[in-house]
Amino acid sequence: xxxxxxxxxxxxxxxxxxxxxxxxxxxxxxxxxxxxxxxxxxxxxxxxxxxxxxxxxxxxxxxxxxxxxxxxxxxxxxxxxxxxxxxxxxxxxxxxxxxxxxxxxxxxxxxxxxxxxxxxxxxxxxxxxxxxxxxxxxxxxxxxxxxxxxxxxxxxxxxxxxxxxxxxxxxxxxxxxxxxxxxxxxxxxxxxxxxxxxxxxxxxxxxxxxxxxxxxxxxxxxxxxxxxxxxxxxxxx
Length: 237
Prior knowledge:
- Helix content is 31%, strand content 22%.
- By secondary structure, it is an alpha+beta fold.
- It has a six-stranded antiparallel sheet with strand order 1-2-3-4-6-5, with helices on one face. A two-stranded antiparallel sheet has the order 7-10. A two-stranded antiparallel sheet has the order 8-9.
């Protein structure tokens, strides 16, 4: 596959892939700009639930307008390929940044988290809970500004309850609030706040957060962090 939408989008390279989809760098031949295109794995398009979840991601992101949220600009189906088109964010992810350079200075980690929180506030006001905030899903522009991406398992008020069974677990262990491990369907905005606290921990340490909800009882979990940020992480988790 080298093109989509009757040749409008030319796929040029792979930016990343996961269990459900692959993200490509692409050229929009109509508007003459580069895009990021997320393509659902063809074998999964036969699943009505997964295809609906994918389409919901596009519609969820399209509802949100904020500089800290990656905008969706198009959605389409081309043969066996279902895809969404996003603005290309050039600077990689926070995960990439940590892998290259290790822990961030406190002021930079706080700056990035605050930027994401501004976008998250808009999502929560629209009734959207992300449910999978982590460094991999925080992208950085060429100038280092954060943008929240990947709303693939977001919960939208009552619109997607039928897609998440009571008791089903969705998210990423380490960044996932304890209540989300019991039932992803029942979580609210506080689960995203938990994930932001664990993301701040990861940005400050370069390490995977483990059971940070227990930090009030085990001080060693937050040992070595800037003293002023310890209560912030404890409160959020």
